[in-house]
From TrEMBL:
PANTHER family: MANNOSIDASE, BETA A, LYSOSOMAL-LIKE, MANBAL PROTEIN (PTHR14409), PROTEIN MANBAL (PTHR14409:SF0). Belongs to the UPF0239 family. The chain crosses the membrane at residues 20-42. Keywords: Membrane, Transmembrane, Transmembrane helix. Residues 57-66 have a biased composition (Basic and acidic residues). The keyword Transmembrane helix applies. Residues 77-87 have a biased composition (Basic residues). It comes from Silurus meridionalis. Its main location: membrane. One of its GO terms (cellular component) is membrane. This is Protein MANBAL.
Length: 87
């Protein structure tokens, strides 16, 4: 009975070209995903942080300003008046 056992490794077919491309493509995709995740987690360049700290604290307030809306409305009114004058 001991002489009848086949202890040789099983025969594994050689991977095809498509399987090789697929395997390396998956490795590259995984590396790309890790790089993207690290880019989100790790801090960005220090020049961006310096710009934030150089701004005054008043400019960083979370209250929305109504002045840009008013200026946009004034610009629209001026354009309308100019178009009426041209008629």
């Amino acid at each position: 009975m001991a002489g009848e056992l086949d202890l040789s490794p099983p025969e594994v077919p050689e991977p095809t070209f498509f399987e090789s491309v697929l395997r390396y493509g998956l490795f590259l995709g995984a590396i790309f995903q890790l790089v993207c995740i690290l880019a989100i987690i790790l801090p960005t360049s220090k020049s961006y942080e310096q710009e934030e700290t150089s701004e005054p604290a008043e400019a960083k307030s979370s209250e929305p300003s109504k002045k840009p809306k008013a200026s946009a409305q004034q610009i629209r009114q001026k354009v309308k008046k100019e178009s009426k004058k041209k008629r």
